[in-house]
Amino acid sequence: MFERVALYLQDSHDLRDGLDYVRMAEDYGFEAVWQAESRLVRDAIVPMAAYAAVTEKLKVGSGVINNWTRNIGLLAATFLTLDDLAPDRIICGIGAWWDPLAKNVGIDRTKPLLAMRETVEVLKRLLNMERVSFEGEFIQVSGIELDVVHGRREPRNVPIMIGATGDKMMELTGEIADGCVLNYCVPPEYNIKALELLDKGAKKAGRRFDDIDRPQLVVCSVDEDHDKAIDTTRELLTQYLAQQPHIAKASGVSSDVVAEIQSILGWPATHEQIQKAKHLVPEELILKITASGTPDEARSKVAEYIKNGCTCPILYPVGGDMETLLKTFSQK
Questions:
Q1: Rg of the Cα trace of the chain?
Q2: pTM value?
Q3: Residue 283 lies in a domain
Q4: pLDDT tens digit string along 91-140?
Q5: Which range marks the domain in which residue 219 is found?
Q6: CATH assignment of the domain containing 130
Q7: Which tens digits make up the pLDDT trace of 59-94?
Q8: Into how many domains does the chain fold?
């Protein structure tokens, strides 16, 4: 049994099925559910509201939204609203997004560190129910506040977690955020450097490293049949290594392998293209950067991430039976 464990939901399931999954996760003693928002497929906020409405104790996080596409006033009002629905159970996971997707929708991600710093600072102040004027390079607001007339006026307890990948963003996270959503598709030892950077940022701000929460996404495919679990993960990695090169880089995957996969996959990738390219992802890589295999194998791999500084594994279920995964990591 692990001290803390969370569930990650993306877009591979029917949205209404997700309501059943989060109720099951709560029954099995999971701490939180995180809803993805990365590709142009499923908004995080709508499912988060639904998950919050059908659970009593489960924390609900965005894993992660980006800091470019929502105006800061709307962003603060959104998380105020979610906190109204589930007080003290909402987590704002936010990241710098990625190219080429951001560029393809007209966003120029210049100075991502400054943009993130401004977003976190103003968002924190607004959720603290302050009246805010701010003249930054990316955010300019004049005398705005969350003007609650009907309801709670007190500051809101919404932790802000940055989904950091690059070194400088990791250091900034240690300086300004409540926590870091450590990336998936990386080996456990990736965390060693990440923790050093978080600590460096924390010291810069006079903070304690231990005050920075470090949940981590972990791709998890569980099946009594080892080979079946591995093959399911192979399909996911085929798509992600091609479409999100920053993850491939952090994983230490050969650029030649990535280029070959990219030459087969279109945008968006079709099921047929993924099947054609998946043989390029070796089992050795799957075992290195995911928790895939039998229940015992999956638990053992997740334990490696915890040993390397992850405070709460956020399990990304890939294929298979959801209840099998939840039972495998049950806290009860």
A1: 19
A2: 0.92
A3: no
A4: 999 999 988 888 999 999 999 999 999 999 999 999 999 999 999 999 99
A5: 6-224+294-328
A6: 3.20.20.30
A7: 999 999 999 999 999 999 999 999 999 999 999 999
A8: 1
